[in-house]
Amino acid sequence: MDYLLTDEQKMIKDLAHKIAEEKIRPVAAKYDISEEFPWDVLKVMGESDMFGLFIPEEYGGLGTNVMNLCLATEEFSRACGGIAVFYADSALGTFPIVLFGDDEQKKKYLPDLASGKKVAAFGITEPEAGSDASGIKTTAKKVGDHYVLNGLKHFITNGGDAETYVVIAMTDKTKGARGASAFIVEKGTPGFTFGKKEDKFGIRASSTRELIFTDCKIPAKNLLAKEGTGFIVTMRTFDMSRPGVAAQALGIAQGALELAVKYAKERVQFGKSISSFQGIQWMLADMATEVEAARGLVYSTARMVDAGIKDVAKESAMAKMYASDVAMKVTIDALQIFGGYGYMKDYPIEKYVRDAKITQIYEGTNQIQRSIIALRLIKEMSK
Which of 57, 84, 241, 256 meets the CB 3.0–4.6 Å disulfide criterion with 352? Predict the structure, then answer.
């Protein structure tokens, strides 16, 4: 299907595809087993200006463009969802600075993030505050010209490997959600340490750790926007980042579909290719249609964000929810086409199933996305 990509977008997609096939796919299984952070791939992405796709030109990037981010993330995810997620999550950690940072903050942090010299992460999730982000316990107390952070974040992608963190903490517990604020915290700051690296089901090439703050003292100038805007920062960030998660899911689904088609053509049973069996053909047809429908929704949402449409919460939730549900269904169906071989680690398809599952969970579970969609829909219909 022709999505009328610009010449620049076609070039970005082609370059990301080349990186995926030449640099990511050959090492995907290795990093899935070792759980090491793919520094060599990061270096290639940085040299290819991939991290500049979501950062303004005046700060060393190529211009903040969610559609370009989605194109790159989709291609990387076709080859490995685990490697792709560290790229997409660096964007997640960068967006709050792009959206709410002052000029001094942008000049200090964005150039290194744009070049890939440094990676970013976003810290909001806590043991008792997953989908209910208003339940965070981490605090930030103003002491003179500093804030002192205390608390714990967990399940943080790029945790320990990122150098630049945006962290949500409570500056006034009495105000509930309006008492949360956003801060930039640098790796190496005294009082800022990391927990163990999580042993995950999927996306094993990405690091996931706890962020631990123990009387962590940061300059007051590291506050993003102003006190009490932490959840505004978070929601605006998610509106921009959720199409990226959707693109990750889309890429995983596309990669699984391609593997399933290839295997169906090569696998011979009863004297002929299983791709000639109607049951397999119908599965492939449904898979391809669902992937294409997800792509249309993801691309349309990304273009809405880039067009400057302010309220895209419903559309971002739809894209993330639908694409991730499609990724889970398509990868499971692809494994079914592989049969018993699909269940073995000698074949790549089981990894796609494992990598797909997280896209239904992080940056808001799909149940939360459905709630967002329904509430927005009811509000729209009430006007």
Answer: 256
